[in-house]
Design a protein that fits this description.
225 residues, alpha/beta, TIM Barrel, eight-stranded parallel barrel
């Protein structure tokens, strides 16, 4: 399959995705689930995308972990995204790269990874959503909806930003930030068709069960084009 065909396939899979897990190289922090076990459980429960987010590992160590994760995700039919390390994403053949507003500009990221790799971008305001260039970015994260310890100092944006994204986002968006089975329904009701979670699955005693609970909530609402 050519890179162009592969890129089209990955974009089709992204368009159908509902549930997205972000996790570190060790699975959960503090360590409880090994990363392979976490990915297997999450995939069995309905996760479509896994993002490997590890701010402190050197590139060579992250490459080793990400390479194994990519092979596992490929077998499980799950997309693997690497956070903020385009060189690592390229080296392991990841499905995508995700960057924040303060990371490398998305135009530079797109130049590095080429036209076929998925590129995701975090957004935190209506202005950032409105500024998204759909020729560079394939999807956005919208949040944090609720305060979360994974983003210290980042104020919660609440449901109003979800409503704005539902009306104005030019690409698929995943609501993120403190979302779990207790509050997911209100986020979905505000217009989110896709959710991104961290602790709700990665810190759960049974990641598969936690993922399935969220996926069932999402699947009660038909994914609209």
């Amino acid at each position: 399959m050519s890179a162009q065909d592969l890129g089209a396939e990955e974009r089709a899979r992204l368009g159908a995705a509902r549930l997205y897990l972000v996790c570190g190289a060790g699975g959960r922090a503090p360590g409880h689930h090994d990363l392979p076990d976490l990915i297997r459980g999450a995939a069995a429960g309905g996760v479509d995308i896994v993002q490997l987010r590890e701010k402190h590992l050197p590139d060579d160590e992250l490459t080793s972990v990400a390479n194994a994760a990519q092979a596992l995700c490929e077998r499980l039919g799950v997309l693997l995204i690497v956070n903020d390390r385009p060189t690592v994403a390229l080296e392991i053949g990841a499905d995508g790269i995700h960057v924040g507003q303060d990371d490398m500009p998305v135009a530079d990221v797109r130049d590095m990874v080429g036209p076929d790799m998925l590129v995701g971008l975090s957004t935190h305001s209506p202005q950032e959503i409105d500024a998204v260039d759909a020729s560079l970015v394939d999807y956005i994260g919208v949040g944090p909806i609720h305060a979360t310890p994974t983003k210290p100092g980042r104020p919660a944006v609440g449901l109003e930003l979800v409503r704005h994204a539902a009306e104005h986002a030019p690409v698929p968006f995943f609501a993120i930030g403190g979302i779990d089975a207790e509050n997911a329904a209100e986020v979905i009701a505000a217009g989110a068709q896709r959710l991104c979670v961290l602790r709700a699955i990665a810190s759960a005693e049974e990641p598969e069960r936690a993922a399935r609970e969220l996926r069932e909530l999402l699947d009660t609402h038909t994914l609209e084009a």
